[in-house]
Amino acid sequence: MSLWEDMGCSGKRVLILHHDDLGITVAQNHAYRRLGFPTGSVMVPSGWAMALGSDSTTDLGVHVTLTSEWAAPRLRPLTGGASLVDAAGFFWSSVPEVWQHADIEEAGREIEAQIDSLAAWGVEVTHLDSHMGAGLRPDIAGRLVEIARRRALPVTMPENIDDLALPDVFRDPLLNIMRDAGMPRLTIVNTYDAPAADRRTWYIDTLSQLRPGVYHLLHHAQVPTTEGRQLGDWEKRQADLEALSDPGVRRVLGEFLPLTYAEVRKAYRQYHP
Amino acid sequence: MSLWEDMGCSGKRVLILHHDDLGITVAQNHAYRRLGFPTGSVMVPSGWAMALGSDSTTDLGVHVTLTSEWAAPRLRPLTGGASLVDAAGFFWSSVPEVWQHADIEEAGREIEAQIDSLAAWGVEVTHLDSHMGAGLRPDIAGRLVEIARRRALPVTMPENIDDLALPDVFRDPLLNIMRDAGMPRLTIVNTYDAPAADRRTWYIDTLSQLRPGVYHLLHHAQVPTTEGRQLGDWEKRQADLEALSDPGVRRVLGEFLPLTYAEVRKAYRQYHP
Q: Mean pLDDT in chain B?
């Protein structure tokens, strides 16, 4: 029996609706509050990471962050790892630079610090995932899984890794890590590259066609304020907010069995006592 | 001859109009751009610190930051100094906690890192001052002055330290440090506690009454956006923005000889070759 079977997911269309990049701006946090869906993950190195609060309506994980890809806001590691930063002390601005430079021990310490920091702020961390996929270098992914297992936290494990445009050499090691992780995989539905102009239709069409299975739909909804528009891809974020506020999209979302990572974590802890 | 005399300030009403807390929010940065006055200092641990840019129209220093006094955004040191942070890894939320806990070596490393980081981003740092006065514990102030001297940077040195509500025991050591610093003092005019409801009148009355001397008028102008209003004292910041945009206030400001820290730095470097 797999975890998903234990949780009664077999034969059903099950959806974790996941808000990425929480904490990066006030505008991203406000979209989370406005939409009212519980699940998302937090970029702990951001100044607004701790502004979300945590209560019975939230289902927040750590969006493990190892890059600082925007001109602003700029992000720094919580730990001092020299291999994690550029000359000005910020995280590398691209994922390949992380893969090239990051020392595995320093990356591991940073991942742990991000989890500890969010937890110390009173957030009951429900899961881990990896911002921009920077944590998918196989040794970093292995360390992430090891840290997650030690803390009995679920990690988002994509079924469809061939969609991630990773270096070929990552593929087999990643498949081995995921196979040994004791955590079942799910299918990522990434809204990021959907057309911003008619994202509503894209959501409805894409979701309507999904067959039974466990899905992790990730979006980046943000209110298009002056602050929010500092992120170069703000139109994609606004499009997610508008689509997820739309009654037609909400109707299609309502056809899924909704799942939270808090529920996954609970089952995981029974499964791996 | 003092530096001020060298600079031709004798007998004149000279004003450094200083924008505090730059970088803390997009809204604070936008107020800086909207007002068009060159001088201010940057909270380097903030995500938006590097969003200001630096060119011939800017006169930016490091607003040395050792506290994280807002619920959000939360700030962390650039260095890992354990004595500088609370249990969640953020700077202490109050100045007395900094004074109680900060190890002088860790504080010194953090000050240097903040200067290095802003400079590495291409900002030509013109001066140093201390956010919330956390750097006024005498040994930290001494270290700040020592770092500044080594880098030939002016430090903001208040003439009127009795206005700062410091512990009595700080007074004599601070006076000694300032006397030995080789940098003349100036009179701080702090708008922070001026009435927000009629700050325009306060500016006009206060500035009109100033006699010849060198003044550092510090303000916290911010645009009152949703993001800006996350800072609990946003109304004071909005009041500064409105007052400094007012033609009557601008007329009174025009009666002063304007001074930048870039000019002070240039004179200081000739004076202490």
A: 95
Say how far apart CA B233 and CA A54 lie, in whole Å.
24
**Tokens, residue A88:** 């000005």
Residue B183's pLDDT band, with cuts at 50, 70 and 90, is confident
Closest CA relative to residue A155, chosen from A118, A192, A180, A120: A180
Here the ipTM equals 0.89
Per-residue tokens: B108 = 């010194």
Q: Which pLDDT score, from 0 to 100, does residue B273 have?
A: 64
| CB < 8 Å to A80, chain B | 79-80
Instruction: Say if residue A253's pLDDT is above 80.
Output: yes
The C-alpha of B93 sits at a distance from chain A's nearest C-alpha, in angstroms, of 14
Catalytic annotation on B20?
A: yes
- From CA A103, how far away is CA B128, in angstroms rounded? 34
Tokens of A90: 């910020």
Q: Which domains does chain A have, with CATH numbers?
A: 3-271 (3.20.20.370)
pLDDT at position B2, please? 82
Residues on chain B touching A226 (C-beta within 8 angstroms):
26-27, 30, 223, 225, 227
Greatest alpha-carbon pair distance for chain B in Å reads 51
